[in-house]
Amino acid sequence: MDTVLYLQKLGLTGYQASVLSAILDRQNSTALEMTGMTGVPYTKIYYVLDSLRYMGFVVADLERPMRFRASNIEDIVDRLVKRHSESLSRVKRVGEEVKLAYKPSSDEFHDIQKAI
């Protein structure tokens, strides 16, 4: 399977996955070079790069033009898996709270059966 598809399955958008895959393949690329490699429009490339930088997957140097390089793939995958794991834990916790909030007491259950 293609790296882009794997990254999407781990929760990145199509643009994020394409750009990150390109940077992993070719470190020290400029935004313009990545536009050519990925097909991501130049008007969106900096937004995508900023989102990847915010997640800690990409770093940029301060030269002009800016060049971008990726963290190692093991760290990226570990962070994405951890993010999904934490999200799943939150969902489970909320689910348990909902069950407790709407669990009828035994008296209420008997009252409902009497009404039927």
Molecular structure report:
This protein is mostly helical. It has one domain: Arc Repressor Mutant, subunit A (Orthogonal Bundle), CATH 1.10.10.10. The chain is 68% helix and 8% strand. It has six helices and three strands. The chain has a three-stranded antiparallel beta sheet. α2 (14-25) crosses α3. The chain is elongated and about 65 Å long. 20% of the residues are buried. The mean pLDDT is 87.
Write the layout of secondary structure elements.
Blueprint: H1 3-9, H2 14-25, E1 29-30, H3 31-38, H4 42-54, E2 58-60, E3 67-70, H5 73-101, H6 106-115
Helix pairs in contact: 1-2, 2-3, 2-4, 3-4
First-residue to last-residue Cα separation: 57 Å
- Please describe the biggest sheet, giving its number of strands, its sense, and whether it closes into a barrel: 3 strands, antiparallel
Specify the structural class: mainly alpha
The helix content, as a percent range, equals: 55-70%
Q: Which residues form runs of ≥5 with pLDDT under 50?
A: none
Spatial strand sequence of the major β-sheet: 1-3-2
By DSSP, the count of extended strands is 3
The CATH topology comes to Arc Repressor Mutant, subunit A
Order of helices and strands: HHEHHEEHH
CATH top-level class? Mainly Alpha
The helix tally amounts to 6
Overall geometry comes to elongated
The overall pLDDT average reads 87
